[in-house]
Amino acid sequence: MTRKERFDFVIHYFQEHAPNAETELLYDNPYQLLVAVILSAQCTDKRVNMTTPAIFEHYPDTKHLAKATFDKLFPFIRSISYPNNKTKHLIGMAQMVEKEFGGEIPHTVEELVQLPGVGRKTANVITSVIDKQPNMAVDTHVFRVSARIGLTVKATTPLATEKQLLQFIPEDLVHIAHHWLILHGRYICVARNPKCSECGLKPACKYYQNVVMKEEIKALNEKRRQSAAPAKEVKASAPKKKAPVKKAAKN
C-alpha cells in the first residue's frame, strides 16, 4: 500500500464511521473555547468540562477575566494540571485580548500565538474549530496515531507531523481530520495496549502489520507446534519395596 493509498483508506473510513467528529470540550463562544483549550494542555477534556462552568459564570468574558487576581481565579483551576501557570496564562491572555484586540478573540494563528498560554497547537485548534480553517493541531494523540498508522514517516516533532499530514489530507477535511485522529487516539489507538481488535484501520495500519500481526502469527505457529508435538511417554515407576523390619534379638 502506498502512502497516498493509506491516507485515502483512513479518510474514507473516518468519513463513513465518524462524519460528525468534533471537540469534546464544552463551549458556547470563541472566548470559552480558548479558555478550555488553554486548560486542556496535559489534562483530560472531562476534567476541563467539570471546571469551566464555574469559571464562565464568574468570568463570562475577557473583560471580567482581565480584572481577576491570581488568588481569586486559582481556586477554580486548582484541580487542573499545572494550575499556577494556567491561572497566570488565563489572566494574561484576557488582558492582552482587551488591550491589543479590543476584547475580541483573534482568529488567525499568527495573532493567537501572541497570547500567553497559546502555542501553535492551541491556535490551530481555535481556528480549525471556530472557522474550519485548514490548520492541523498536533497533540500527543495525533502525533502517536499518525506515526503508528504510517501517515507520517520519521516525523520527530509536532511541526513535522503537521506538515506531513497537510501534504495528503484535502484542505476541506483538515479541520475534521484533526478530531478524527485525536478521538481515535483517545479511545482506540491508546498509548499502551492499543485496541487493535476493535480498530477498523488494521488493513492500512503499519503498526498492526509490522508488530501485532507478526506477534499473532508467532503465537499461532507456537500453538500449532505444541499441538503437533508427540506426547512424551510416561513410564510408571515400580512401587518401592519396603525395607524388612529387623526383629530385636532375644536375650
Automatic annotation (TrEMBL):
Family stated for the protein in its record: Belongs to the Nth/MutY family.
Enzyme Commission number(s) from the entry: 4.2.99.18
Coiled coil (residue ranges): none
HAMAP family per the UniProt record, alphabetical: Nth
Functional summary from the UniProt entry: DNA repair enzyme that has both DNA N-glycosylase activity and AP-lyase activity. The DNA N-glycosylase activity releases various damaged pyrimidines from DNA by cleaving the N-glycosidic bond, leaving an AP (apurinic/apyrimidinic) site. The AP-lyase activity cleaves the phosphodiester bond 3' to the AP site by a beta-elimination, leaving a 3'-terminal unsaturated sugar and a product with a terminal 5'-phosphate.
Protein name, UniProt field: Endonuclease III
Biased composition annotated in UniProt, kind: Basic residues: 238-251
Entry keyword annotation includes Signal: no
Cofactor: how bound: Binds 1 [4Fe-4S] cluster.
GO BP term, example: base-excision repair, AP site formation
Cofactors demanded by this protein: [4Fe-4S] cluster
One of the record's GO molecular function terms: metal ion binding
Source taxonomy: Bacteria, Pseudomonadati, Bacteroidota, Chitinophagia, Chitinophagales
UniProt keyword Iron present: yes
Residues in HhH-GPD domain copies: 39-187
Binding residues annotated for [4Fe-4S] cluster, in chain numbering: C189, C196, C199, C205
Keywords: 4Fe-4S, DNA damage, DNA repair, DNA-binding, Endonuclease, Glycosidase, Hydrolase, Iron, Iron-sulfur, Lyase, Metal-binding, Nuclease
Span list, region Disordered: 222-251
